[in-house]
Specification:
The protein has 10 helices and no strands. Helix content is 75%, strand content 0%. Helix 2 crosses helix 4.
Length: 191
């Protein structure tokens, strides 16, 4: 992404309007969501987002690439927010209810960690399957091939892939239940 961002910045600095639009499309919602959480309402978040992008355009020639473009822009957004708070002389404490109302739609660190742990546990169990079942799971779930594409890649019938998939899922459910893993059988069915 860094090479792509650096190229986009160079294009913007050269006057490429399409690259400028691409930058806005990539980061506007993220910056707005961040500022919405800080400001607590849509109107202020919208104004702060506009101010952030104004500062980004002014500062873009000085972007040295010592950080990612995303973290650089979020830093600018945070400073825009702090300046706004100082100018508005806001000093009131925020209640827990206020913070809960400003929650992000993105998963929290605990959810990200739980998902990563579940994925690692599941992957380790998949690796213990017999080769035909393991390869079926890898091709279909991890490589994203359709059932037909998996069958073609393995040179077997689609019905064989479906059978192997059912076999693998049953063995994985049994293994995870025996290990008392946090990944329940019901969650495995959604995979």
């Amino acid at each position: 992404m860094n090479a792509e961002c650096n190229q986009m910045i160079q294009s913007i600095l050269s006057g490429d309007k399409a690259a400028a639009i691409r930058l806005i499309e990539l980061f506007y919602q993220k910056i707005y969501t961040f500022l919405r959480r800080l400001a607590g309402n849509d109107a202020d978040a919208s104004d702060l987002t506009q101010s952030t992008f104004t500062r980004v355009w002014r500062a873009l020639p000085t972007f040295a690439g010592r950080s990612s473009l995303s973290s650089w822009m979020h830093g600018i957004a945070y400073h825009v927010y702090v300046d706004w708070r100082r100018a508005s002389r806001f000093n009131e404490a925020r209640s827990d209810e206020w913070w809960l109302a400003c929650s992000s739609a993105e998963p929290g660190p605990d959810e990200v960690t739980e998902r990563a742990d579940l994925a690692a546990t599941l992957y380790a169990c998949v690796e213990q399957l017999e080769p035909d079942l393991k390869h079926t799971i890898h091709l279909h779930y991890y490589q994203g091939l359709t059932l037909e594409e998996t069958a073609h890649a393995m040179a077997v019938a689609t019905s064989t892939v479906k059978y192997r998939q059912r076999q693998a899922l049953a063995q994985l459910q049994k293994k995870l239940a025996a290990d008392q893993s946090p990944l329940s059988a019901s969650r495995l069915k959604t995979i």
